């Protein structure tokens, strides 16, 4: 994990996965973290994420007019989705870093860039 001025600037999916496993183990929450429960929890967090954008109309890139507290809330909900996604991949035995990297390559083959 890399930090700069108290801020994490880089972290791997594996590091997050390890931290989540530790968090769950310390609380004995593994019993609740079945694939289906994690999927439902993730979808619930996608709902919370959607609520932040609800009724605002279109939003400018970079969210220039948003309050800091709203941006912070957005970061938390995005993180909840990511953290459940990582746990879901782990419990299903999917290496998300490998799968996502391979998918980007597959996408590039399916959608080649326009030739100049
Ligand atoms: N059984 C659980 C419960 C929570 N979490 C973790 C993953 C999420 O990052 C976060 C979700 O916590 P909450 O359910 O409290 O949801 P929020 O943080 O969104 O709180 P609220 O719904 O009150 O806004 O906690 C988890 O791993 N396993």
UniProtKB/TrEMBL annotation:
GO terms (BP aspect):
dCTP catabolic process; DNA protection
An annotated GO cellular component: cytosol
What molecular functions are annotated in GO for this chain? Answer: dCTP diphosphatase activity; magnesium ion binding
Cofactor(s) the protein requires to work: Mg(2+)
Q: Which domain of life is it from?
A: Eukaryota
Keywords on record: Cytoplasm, Hydrolase, Magnesium, Metal-binding
Q: Which reaction does it catalyse?
A: dCTP + H2O = dCMP + diphosphate + H(+)
> How would you summarize the oligomeric state and partners of this protein?
Homotetramer.
Protein name from the UniProt record: dCTP pyrophosphatase 1
